[in-house]
Amino acid sequence: MLTLASGLDWNIFFKPAFDGSGTYLRFLLIGLQWTLLLSVLSWILAFVLGSIVGVIRTFPGKFLPTLGATYVEIFRNIPLLVQLFLWYFVLPEIIPGLGTWFKQALSPVVQQLVTGVLCLGFFTAARVAEQVRSGINALGRGQRGAGLALGLNLLQVYHLILLPVAYRIIVPTLTSEFLNTIKNSAVASTIGLAELSRQSQQLGEFTAHWYEAFIAVTVLYGVINIAVMVASRFLERATRLPGYVGGKD
Amino acid sequence: MGKVLALKTSLLAVVGFCLVSGGSGAWAADDLTGTLKKIKDAGSISVGHRESSIPFSYYDDKNQVVGYSQDLVMMVIEAVKKKLNLPNLQVKLVPVTSQNRIPLIQNGTIDIESGSTTNNLERQQQVAFSNTMFIIGTRLLVKKDSGIQDFPDLKGKNVVVTAGTTSERLIREMNEKQGMQMNIISAKDHGESFLTLQSGRAAAFMLDDALLAGERAKAKKSADWVIVGTPQSKEAYGMMMRKGDDQFKMLVDETIAKAETSGEAEKLDQKWFQSPIPPKGLNLELPFSDDMKELFKSPNDKAFQ
Question: Does ipTM top 0.90?
Answer without folding.
Answer: no
